[in-house]
Write a structure and sequence with these properties.
Rossmann fold; alpha+beta; 4-stranded parallel β-sheet; 9-stranded antiparallel β-sheet; Dna Ligase, domain 1; D-amino Acid Aminotransferase, Chain A, domain 1
Length: 383
């Protein structure tokens, strides 16, 4: 795509119709683009705001081919997809970004880590495992990770003792050292087709320990300028190593010794970047549209410190969602409420998020925690 491309008639395809695809579609529609969603769920969140939905699974070769051939550019809101047919289409010069080759690499967390390590990106010590002896020889305690398919805390297991090995992940996996973590950090990095790169502020993530899902994001992270600079350098280099095009969520560990280790990369809009919708000059959702259509990347300037809180389905409930406390929560100054439009809630399912702005990050956190206590996503059935 060059400057002479007729952007007024651009057709964008998005593989995946969840909340990320929904907000991507809203931003693409604001820019006047035609959006087609591929998702197996009829009237999924993204389909509610898009021009068209192709109903099909993410491993449906026929439907994936149809989407790519009908659109000028195809991108993703999730990484668990059939890369084989997409690689064949990409090799025939269909525009698919990030490239299916990048997606395939990132799908395998071990191969992802191995490449980054070989290219000089600092990562935790790791090893592929085949037997319990491999685990023991590495030295306990360790973190065991499934090579493929893990997300939102799934496919990750802490093994402290030999007795824990009975509960180890039974799929192809690798192990990592148990890092002495001071903070978990993340950066959203954008890169367009011409290689222009833009990095957002470094943020700090807090996790719900019950299910290891990112619970709270603070922007900017409470770190020194030196640590921020180093983290950005590592994040940008990692996306250059991948030759990635699009938006990437780069998750990192800051150790108690002051080292930065790259944990993993998500090749799509990321939970740690939701705050950009209200807090930055250009949101991650508009930025990915710019990147994959080869438009100039937008400013990543932080307009205001902010705290984002995920709204997870309440434990003990499922079925049609009910939002409890929305009136009281919206009385909190500078709070923005996002509900994703999912038809059913489940325990710990991501149902929405809030972002709270304040010139003082500590005040923003207090306001966000107050809202978190007020807002509950319950369901029509108790379980």
């Amino acid at each position: 795509m060059d400057k002479n491309f007729n952007y007024s008639s651009l057709k964008l395809g998005i593989i995946g119709g969840g909340q990320l695809g929904k907000i991507m579609s809203q931003k693409a529609k604001k820019m006047g683009f035609h959006v087609t969603i591929l998702d197996p769920t009829i009237n999924c969140p993204a389909a509610q705001v898009s021009d068209r939905q192709i109903v099909g699974g993410f491993y449906d070769k026929e439907k994936l081919t149809q989407l790519v051939k009908e659109c000028d550019v195809t991108t993703f809101e999730l990484e668990h997809i059939d890369t084989q047919v997409l690689k064949e289409l990409y090799d025939k010069d269909y525009r698919i970004f990030p490239s299916p080759y990048v997606m395939e690499l990132i799908q395998d967390k071990y191969e992802q880590k191995k490449l980054l390590d070989e290219k000089g990106i600092p990562v935790p010590k790791y090893k592929s495992v085949q037997t319990k002896e491999d685990l023991i020889s590495f030295g306990l305690p360790v973190i065991q990770k499934a090579k493929k398919g893990g997300y939102d805390g799934k496919g990750v297991m802490l093994l402290k003792t030999e007795e824990d090995l009975e509960n180890c992940i039974k799929v192809e996996s690798f192990i990592e050292e148990l890092v002495d973590i001071d903070k978990e950090l993340a950066i959203i990095v954008a890169r367009n087709i011409e290689g222009q790169i833009a990095a957002y502020p470094v943020v700090e993530m807090l996790f719900d320990e019950r299910v290891n899902i990112c619970d709270i994001v603070m922007a900017p992270a409470r770190i020194s300028e030196e640590i921020e600079k180093k983290a950005k350098e590592i994040a940008i280099k990692s996306i250059e190593v991948l030759d990635g095009v699009g938006i990437f969520g780069v998750e990192m560990f800051l150790t108690k010794q002051g080292r930065i280790l790259l944990n993993e990369i998500a090749p799509r809009p990321h939970n740690s970047g939701h705050y950009t919708f209200e807090s930055c000059a250009t949101s991650q959702f508009e930025q990915i549209i710019r990147a994959v259509t080869n438009l100039p990347l937008g400013s990543t300037k932080l307009i205001s410190p902010s705290v984002m809180v995920n709204l997870l389905g309440e434990e003990g409930y499922e079925g049609e969602p009910f939002i409890e406390g929305i009136h009281d929560a919206l009385e909190i100054p500078e709070l923005s409420f996002h509900f994703y439009g999912k038809k059913e809630t489940k325990p710990f399912r991501k149902m929405g998020h809030i972002t709270v702005l304040d010139e003082n990050l500590d005040v923003a956190l207090k306001k966000a925690l107050k809202a978190k206590d007020i807002l509950k996503i319950k369901g029509s059935k108790k379980i």
